[in-house]
Amino acid sequence: MLKLVIVDDEKVIREAISTIIDWKKYDIELSRLCKNGLEAYNAILDESPDIVLTDIRMPHMDGLQLIKNISEMDLDTQFIILSGYGEFEYAKTAMEYGVKHYLLKPCNEHQIVECIQKTAQDCYRKKLSMRMGKNQFFIANSMQHSVISCIINDTIFQKNGCLDDMVKSYEQYMDFYYTPYTLFYVYFLEEDARDLFLQGLEQYCRERIPHHTIHGIYVHCTMILFFKDHAQSYDSFIQFLLKMPLSARHMDLKIECVKYSNLKNLLHTVLDKIRRFSIIYYISDFHAFATCNYLFFTQESERLYHAFKSTGDPEEILHLLGLFTGISDLNFCRQLAVSLLLKISSDNPALSATDFTDWLISLNREDNLEQLKQLIQEKIKQALAGAPQTNKVSTMTKQIMNYVEEHLQDQNLTLKFIAENELYMNVNYVSRKFFKDTGVKFSHYLSDVRIKRAKQYLASNEADKIQDIAQLVGYGNNPQYFSHLFKKTVGMTPSAFNRSLHQTSAKK
């Protein structure tokens, strides 16, 4: 439910607007009535309303000043101007502060409701965009941790592991060349104090630098931390590390800070330093995971995959899948699979980062070794099978696909409409041609595109916000069906899929 504040110095007007409309019917909570801009300003600070319907000419603080003051704050308040014809120039000024909607006095109930509903849609889109931003961080954070851990495994635990080759394989997922990074060596951090150190670091980062991915490596009393450069000085961060209360610590910590022009140069230095250690702990989301030198499995998986790429022999796939049956360590089994899937997806342009993220979520949710192996075999088969190339389809089918992408929110989207109004062709012919080009019926293709788009939209929202996603992908008139279809396609409800995105990083 959205919150509304009404501001007008004429008591008759503000009370009339508040009473003639059943606000709950439109999922609106009327939180305050204010008689001037100053009162409204305080009410906004107290109530944090989503929508403010305000007059312009008022005592103490007029509507324009109110809008200007609130626009300078970190609030997500949408304003609706209520003005007379002679005040339209004022309304134009207000639009410079981002106001999109206005009502001309006198106005009726229908006009007010229509304007409120349009503004409510803007509010929901903005809220959804913010949730998507958070969700994108969780996805990117998980992806980047997977890439760095795979690079460590590939370059250190293979005889001829070359960082340049690894970077080329993974550059579609991370920037290795242009973003500056800062690295910290934390010396004399004993192993029995490591986890306590990571707990303190996590709390600091959540409070001070949220939505920053922190990479870490721990070897023999040394913690190596690195992240994208985001400040001119890290004095406060260094002081925090030095003063961190570690009950098991026997020696004072020593900190060394080094800046690098890009991630590739940083990795060259770090990987050379840690090669000599037999056990390396990679720090993913402030948890330490040991990486051991399973040289045989990594070399053999590389050989079999490259053999399949060269020959296309399905026997190589069988050998590759069979390789996992001999692994008894669940974490290494998962790590090897992630590394292999990254290679396959980077080699196949038909596979997107979203495909890989789906695989990553599935693998990280499974804690049973035998079931994990079965899941790995399934995902590798799926990845090697690839996806149909759009450049093999006809121009007509491409037009249909483009139209679907542009009008996905239309809940009445049908092939019949596209055929008759866009292509001017017989729908039966179009349907047969589309199936011949793609191998699927239009309805299945449309559902698949909608579910994939929904995955991209999903954010850290609560269950009752799934309706927003349903609206954006064309199921606004039936969110229950959307949830049912999503679960049938993905294997879990939209809410469960959201939770999986958060749990992915913690379980790696």
Per DSSP, the total helix count is 21
Task: Give the spatial strand order of the biggest sheet.
Answer: 9-6-8-7-10-11
Q: Strand portion, in percent?
A: 5-15%
Question: Whole-Å distance between the termini?
Answer: 37 Å
The backbone outline, from C-alpha atoms, is: flat
Calculate the mean pLDDT score and round it.
81
What's the short story on this structure?
With 508 residues, the chain is α/β, with parallel strands linked by helices. The chain has helices spanning 11-20, 37-47, 63-71, 88-95, 109-156, 163-170, 191-208, 235-242, 263-274, 295-311, 314-323, 330-347, 353-365, 369-385, 395-406, 415-423, 427-438, 442-457, 466-472, 479-490, 494-507; strands spanning 2-7, 28-34, 51-55, 78-83, 101-104, 181-187, 215-219, 222-228, 254-260, 280-284, 287-291. β3, α3 and β4 (78-83) form a beta-alpha-beta unit.
